[in-house]
Amino acid sequence: IAALAQAGFRVIAPDQRGFGRSDKPPRIEDYRMQERSADIVGLLDALGHEKVYLAGHDFGGFVGWDLAIHHPERLRKFVVFNVAHPEVYRSPPPKVPGRETTNWFRTFFQLPWLPELVARSGNWYLLSRNLVGTSRPGTFAESALGYYRAAWAYENAIHTMIHWYRAGFRFPKTSAANPRVHVQTLVVWGELDSFNDASLAEPSLAFCDDGEIALYGDAGHWLLHEKPAETSQLLIEFFGAP
């Protein structure tokens, strides 16, 4: 955020619904993709921005793809970190032999209340350990983890955060009539990602009129934290003049 602001951009970094200090609707259906995307469109309307440069990572990346497909008129350019085009997930390439993933948690999160209880146990031990264990050494210092624990606990946010996974499973978004992305797009991936395999990056370009890829071989899922200076410069150069 600081690097982009110093380069002349105004940076808008909202807590999405269910997270942080934003509203936390109680129903699982409140976290369907159309609701998530409508939040961002509504935010742009409220702030008076007709078009923006958009960047998204993980959950933000899924919302970003949806906006690029259904609301391209609101975007100047789009950068997505470690998330493939939604059509790629419908027929993903074969998994890399011997490559272990931690995707079991997506199934576990479908259970009612138990995931929230497990997440809270031991002062958020499993979630904290997951951040440290799936990133480069030193990425998440103990002082930084305190902010994450506070965010997970704030207004029981962990409950509505997990609703994102529940909604994605119970209310999957149907294929768009035209899933092509006409906005200039940059797909960025840390090749050591434990959650989303980097092999999904290349197939995403097949759905982009003007797409390119940037790979980081020594970073993983938490690319923005692992490579803050490099990814900031990448955004600044791709977006161009503020």
Question: How would you explain this protein's 3D organization?
Answer:
The chain has helices at 2-6, 33-47, 59-70, 86-90, 104-108, 114-133, 142-153, 157-170, 201-204, 223-226, 228-239, and strands spanning 52-57, 75-81, 184-190, 211-216. It starts with a helix and ends with a helix. It is α/β, with parallel strands linked by helices. 45% of the residues lie in helices and 11% in strands. The longest helix is centred in the middle third of the chain and has 20 residues, at 114-133. 30% of the residues are buried.
**What is the percentage of strand-forming residues?**
5-15%
Amino- and carboxy-terminal Cα gap: 14 Å
What is the count of helical runs? 11
Radius of gyration: 18 Å
User: Largest sheet, order of strands side by side?
Assistant: 1-2-3-4
Write down how many β-strands occur, each being a DSSP E stretch of 2 or more residues: 4
- The arrangement of helices and strands along the chain is HHEHEHHHHHEHEHH
The computed structural class is alpha/beta
